[in-house]
Design brief:
The chain contains 15 helices and 5 strands.
C-alpha cells in the first residue's frame, strides 16, 4: 500500500502552470525558429532539418535552466560528441542491438570524461544507429542539423532568460572576491556559519543533477537565515527603526544645493525623488568625490569646490544637476520587511543607507547602519 505514493510522487518540484506560460511560449517560438533557420542553411544532400532530441533539450533550457545539464557547454558538447559516436557506431558491421548498446555506452563515457553530461545527447547518438548513417548525412550530421540546431537553441535560451525574464542564464559561479572592496576576503556574512563553498561541496557530495546552482542555494540559505533570525529575536520591521524626517532632492536640483544639504544636515546620502516622491536614485558624498578629478597637483579641497560650483552644462562634459551624477536605480526596502532583509545589503553590498518605500515606491524613511546596530542590540537583549 505504500508503493503508490513513492512510485507516483512528483519527481521535480515545478512552478504553477500560470507562471510557466512564458517558458511554454518560448519553447514553441524556439522550435519554429530552429526549423526556419536550419532550412536556410541546409546542405542540398541532407533532408533532415531538425534533430528530435532538440525538443528534450528545449525543455531543459526553458523549464530547468539552473540545472548543470542545461548549461550551454554540456548541451552543445553532449550533442556533438553523441552525434559523432552515433555515426561511428552506425557504420560498424554489427547487429542493431550491439550498435545501440555501444552507442549509449560510449556517449555516456565521453560525456563523463569531458564533463558535459546532457541526457538528450543519448537520443542524438541513437538516431544514426536507428535510421542508418547515410540517412542522416554521415559525418555531416554532427554539424548539421545537430550543432546548428543546438546553437540556435542556446542563443534563444540566453535571450529569453536574460532579456525577457531578466534572469541569469547561463549560470555564473559566485566570485570568491569581495566585489565591493576588491579584496580576497570573504564577505562579512560569509565569514560566519555556512558559506558558498560549503554549499558547493554539499551539492557535489549529493551527486545529483538538480535544478539549482550553488549560487541559488546560497540565496536560499540567506533567506533561511533571515527567517531563523526573525523567529529567534522577534519580528522587528524596517518601518520600526527607520528615520522618517528624510532630506531629499529632485533630479533637477543643482549640485551646489545638494552639496549644501549634505553639509547642513551632516548626512552622507540624499534620496532622489520624482514628482510623485518615488525614489529614482540616490546621491552621496562618494558620487561627488568620484567626479571631482584628483589627478593633478591642486589640493583636494580646490578640486571639490571647483566641481560643486561648476556652472558648465553637461554638454561641456561637466555635470551640473543631481540627475547627472546620481546612482540609479537605488536599493530600497519596504517598510513591512523584517530588518533581517537589510543585513545583506549593508554588510555585503557596501551600502550605508537604504531608503524605505511603501508598496508604490514612495519614500517613507531611511535606515542607516547605526539604526540596524541599535535594533540588533535591542533584539539580542530581549532574546536574552
Amino acid at each position: 500500500m505504500r508503493l503508490k505514493p513513492s512510485i507516483f510522487s512528483s519527481a521535480v518540484s515545478v512552478e504553477p502552470l500560470q507562471s510557466q506560460w512564458p517558458a511554454l511560449l518560448a519553447s514553441f517560438v524556439s522550435m519554429l525558429l530552429i526549423v526556419w533557420m536550419s532550412s536556410l542553411i541546409t546542405p542540398g544532400a541532407v533532408s533532415m532539418l531538425i534533430v528530435a532530441s532538440v525538443g528534450a533539450s528545449a525543455m531543459l533550457v526553458f523549464l530547468l535552466p539552473n540545472s548543470p545539464v542545461s548549461q550551454p557547454y554540456p548541451l552543445l558538447m553532449g550533442h556533438v560528441i553523441s552525434a559523432v559516436v552515433g555515426v561511428t557506431c552506425a557504420l560498424l558491421p554489427l547487429d542493431l542491438a550491439f550498435k545501440a548498446s555501444l552507442c549509449v555506452f560510449f556517449c555516456l563515457l565521453l560525456m563523463v570524461l569531458f564533463d558535459c553530461v546532457h541526457p538528450p545527447g543519448g537520443a542524438t547518438g541513437l538516431m544514426p544507429v536507428i535510421v542508418g548513417a547515410e540517412a542522416v548525412g554521415a559525418y555531416t550530421y554532427p554539424v548539421f542539423p545537430v550543432l546548428i540546431n543546438m546553437l540556435v537553441l542556446v542563443v534563444l535560451g540566453i535571450a529569453f532568460h536574460r532579456y525577457y525574464l531578466k534572469k541569469e542564464y547561463p549560470s555564473v559561479p559566485i566570485s570568491t572576491q569581495d566585489s565591493v572592496h576588491l579584496h580576497n576576503d570573504a564577505s562579512p556574512l560569509a565569514r560566519l556559519g555556512i558559506n558558498h563553498q560549503d554549499l558547493e561541496n554539499a551539492l557535489s557530495v549529493y551527486e545529483a543533477q538538480l535544478n539549482i546552482t550553488g549560487k541559488d542555494l546560497t540565496q536560499v540559505y540567506g533567506l533561511a537565515q533571515q527567517n531563523a533570525y526573525a523567529r529567534k529575536f522577534g519580528e522587528i520591521c524596517c518601518e520600526d527603526i527607520m528615520s522618517k524626517d528624510v532630506v531629499a532632492v529632485l533630479p533637477d536640483t543643482e549640485l551646489e544645493e545638494a552639496w549644501a544639504l549634505l553639509r547642513k544636515h551632516k548626512v552622507k546620502v540624499l534620496p532622489v525623488l520624482d514628482s510623485d516622491r518615488k525614489v529614482i536614485g540616490i546621491i552621496s558624498l562618494v558620487d561627488f568625490l568620484k567626479r571631482a578629478g584628483l589627478k593633478d597637483y591642486d589640493s583636494f579641497a580646490e578640486h571639490l569646490i571647483r566641481f560643486v560650483k561648476n556652472d558648465s552644462d553637461i554638454r561641456d562634459g561637466k555635470p551640473k544637476q543631481v540627475k547627472q551624477i546620481m546612482a540609479s536605480p537605488a536599493y530600497t526596502v519596504k517598510g513591512g520587511e523584517l530588518i533581517a532583509a537589510i543585513v545583506p545589503l549593508l554588510s555585503d553590498k557596501g551600502l550605508h543607507h537604504i531608503p524605505v518605500v511603501n508598496e508604490n515606491g514612495i519614500l517613507e524613511g531611511m535606515i542607516t547602519q547605526s539604526d540596524l546596530i541599535a535594533a540588533l542590540y535591542f533584539g539580542a537583549l530581549n532574546a536574552g
